[in-house]
Specification:
With 297 residues, the chain is mostly helical. The protein has helices spanning 2-54, 59-62, 78-85, 88-119, 125-134, 140-153, 161-164, 172-182, 187-195, 200-211, 213-229, 232-237, 246-257, 261-292.
Length: 297
Amino acid sequence: MAEAVSGATALPRVRQAHTHQYVLRRRLGRGLLYLALLSGSILFSVPFFWLLTTSLKATRQIISYPPVWIPNPVAWRNYPDVFRYAPFGLYFRNTLFIVGFNMVGAVITCSLVAYAFARLQAPGRELLFGILLATMMLPGWVTLVPLYIVYSKLNWINTFLPLIVPPLFGSAFFIFMMRQFFRGLPAELEDAALMDGCSYVGIWWRIILPLSGPVLATAAIFSFMGAWNDLIGPLIFLNSRNKYTLAIGLQAFVTEHGAEWGLLMAASTMMILPIIVVFFFMQKQFVQGITLTGIKG
């Protein structure tokens, strides 16, 4: 009898010990994971930190050895000098103009086409969607020369039209991503709206778009980054300096003032800072859009 009582008492202790070991291993694994992520984040942040501090250094500190990490004194004049040597304010406005049209095409046009592929039943829908996906396999370099010839016939060269008109007709990647997201939304909402007399365009505008914030934010961020960093398009289609974007303006600045590292780093910092700010404020929607966009048949 005593042995039975002793065994019954020891069993909870064994379970408690195993639970304690499991919690300890879990905390240790999580701690190692956090340590690895922290080390990786510091490693990847070092180039940006060096870029930022170099943009605030005088020339003698930039070329000094051993390297000076913290500028002393801080050379704030590098930033206004950038605008004195090049019209970066004009480049910024040109870039925002192009980025705005790209984001409108990514959010409005692509979502409308994606809704049609995801919800509307029509003959040949899957065939058309397959053709759309096939265009993603065609490298942009293959169509560059034919596009240039077409745009030259339309007198679009040295205008913003080659950079803002094509995005308004949608992007295959964004359409595919949004279609997958829309297919996961409850169909009952559309059925109820149709019974109330709502049109398909009304359903897309009043139901689909409000429920698709994460995927729309993801498309907007990708579109923003692509148009903001685009160098080939402006380099090929724009000739006048007053139409330069930030990417091609920075390239021209490197050619003219490549030896002035403080100015070059200041211009580069202004180039990448908006991307960091946009991602910082929209990272939650971006992660949700990537997570919730599943691959459904």
